[in-house]
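Q: How would the structure tokens look for this protein?
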Amino acid sequence: MIKFIKRLITKIMDNDVTGMAAQLAYFFLLSLFPLLIFMTTLLAYTPLGQDDLFNVIKEFAPEDSFNMVRKTLDEVMANRSGGLLSIGIIGTIWSASNGMNGLMRSLNRAYDVEEGRPFILARGLAIILTLAMIFVFLLALLVPVFGKQLGMFVFSYLGYSNEFLHIWGVIRWTLTPIILFIIFFVIYLLAPSTKVKFKTAAPGALFASLGWIIVSFGFSFYVSKFGNYTSTYGSLGAMIVLMLWFYLSAIIIMVGGELNSLLGEREDNRRPNT
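A: Here is the predicted structure in token form.
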């Protein structure tokens, strides 16, 4: 285990994970508002509202950054016209996939491979992964609404409504890590320009989902209690905090990719020569 950790640290340093994370944070910022605009537009076709979307984001994002993002999105949506099927939504989806496209290049570096897929195919995959991520996220929003109603109906019919509330409380806290694991697992499996096995994609997905939750909560707590970025950056403080959150998130995702890559190398080395 110690030898494996040393190799992982060496691989992280050799691939300049912190530098790649800085690039990813930039791409995440570029894709943030197009992604939120597209998701907000889709909400009109569901029983959900913007508050349901922002309630999930609020649990993890630093408060100042959350307020800035919500205010900006409200201003953008107030000035937008047209529906989901307008021509402008195509550009929105393309912009929203910038973060995924940057992540794909970063994971290629983790696996020490060049992008071997044609540009259209690679960009198309980035868009598909982005749309899949949005779909899973919206599904995660719908499950608490209708899952609780359905569960209350069934358990009330059986006379165990109080027991269901306790069970639902446990399910609610385990739902977010499960959804994140699914998203990261699919990304780690399909994003690199090389074949990745299921069993070598799972450890990184588990690390990234749990690590991202811990880091997000920890960073949000630090900013709210100790980090006074406004005194240094003024009105840009909220933007700096958002960029730092993206930067830390990118490091966690990249380390998960490096972990999967190293596990894949070890799996290949164990194969008998033929």
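Residues 10-265 form one domain.

Residues 230 and 236 are 7 Å apart (CA to CA).

Upvote if useful.
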